[in-house]
Design goal:
- The chain contains no helices and 9 strands.
- The protein is 0% helix and 24% strand.
- Strands 1-3-5-7 form a 4-stranded parallel beta sheet, with no helix packed on it. The chain has a 3-stranded parallel beta sheet with strand order 6-8-9, with no helix packed on it.
- With 118 residues, it is mainly β.
- It has one domain (1-91): Leucine-rich repeat, LRR (right-handed beta-alpha superhelix), CATH 3.80.10.10.
Length: 118
């Protein structure tokens, strides 16, 4: 499977997911409106679509270096989220934490290198 389609697993009661590295694209709203607290994104995923993880219970997430595009509001309405660690260079679009749907208090940083904020 190369992609997870638009709204593929939305509106369920999923609490954790592991996305293997052979998936390249996580579609818009793919996991929207669930109860997800734990997310593992495999190295190989290239794009996270708009609102892909909107309205969940994610606390923190590590995004592998293979991800080069994170679309708007990908993590919106995860009110308990504290940190987002990104292992690669800054995603291709020049976005702020609010563009990803994250509150400004969330630390979005490069975890694999200097640990500096992106």
């Amino acid at each position: 499977m190369k992609s997870i389609g638009t709204n593929a697993f939305s509106n369920n009661k999923i609490t954790s997911i592991i996305i293997p590295g052979n998936v390249e694209y996580i579609g818009n709203g793919a996991f929207e409106n669930n109860m997800i607290r734990s997310v593992t994104i495999g190295n190989g995923v290239k794009m996270i679509g708009a609102a892909a993880f909107r309205d969940n219970k994610i606390i923190s997430i590590r995004i592998p270096a293979s991800v080069t595009e994170i679309d708007y509001f990908a993590f919106e309405d995860n009110d308990n989220i504290i940190s987002v660690c990104y292992e690669g260079a800054r995603p291709s679009r020049d976005k702020t934490t609010s563009d990803f749907g994250l509150p400004s208090s969330v630390i979005f940083k490069n975890c694999d290198r200097s640990g500096s904020d992106l």
